[in-house]
Design brief:
The chain has 130 residues and is α+β, with helices and mostly antiparallel strands. It has two domains: 37 residues, no CATH class; 85 residues, no CATH class. Helices cover 32% and strands 17% of the residues. It is built from five helices and six strands; from the N terminus they run ββαβαββαβαα. The strands form two sheets. A three-stranded antiparallel β-sheet has the order 2-1-3. The longest helix has 15 residues. It is elongated and about 50 Å long. 20% of the residues are buried.
């Protein structure tokens, strides 16, 4: 089970800081000079990475070969089978651990997260429809 630690903004969390089972509980105990930090339990991170990588390889987006940039690292974008015509992705570590996936149209995803490859967008969007 992941932990949500409440700690002062001035330092990283520590294991002895108050921890809560979910974000809402942690925020209920939040004071103005504190923040909430998500920390996965031991083993959860590797399970999440394995699951997301399998999905991304099996349902490959046309830009799979492009190296990640600062905004796409950890996304593991894939073609959604539940919502054809959409790209699914994992927004952040917390969403990945909780298996919460985001989805949007390929054009929007490319515009938001891979604008530097604008010249390829039309080709990649068309390939998502096949």
């Amino acid at each position: 089970m992941p932990h949500y630690y409440v700690h002062p903004k001035t330092r990283p969390y520590r294991e002895d800081d108050p921890d809560f089972p979910d974000r809402a509980s942690a925020h209920a105990h939040l004071m103005p000079e504190h923040v909430v930090t998500f920390q996965p339990a031991i083993g959860e991170h590797s399970k999440y990475l394995s699951r997301e990588l399998r999905r991304a390889i099996a349902q490959r987006v046309p830009w799979f070969h492009i190296p990640h940039n600062d905004t796409t690292v950890g996304h593991y974008a894939y073609l959604s089978t539940e919502h054809p015509g959409y790209v699914g992705y994992t927004k952040d570590l917390e969403s990945g651990i909780l298996d919460k996936r985001m989805r949007m149209r390929p054009g929007r995803y490319l515009t938001l997260y891979l604008p530097e490859h604008h010249a390829q967008h039309a080709k990649w969007i068309a390939a998502c429809s096949v």
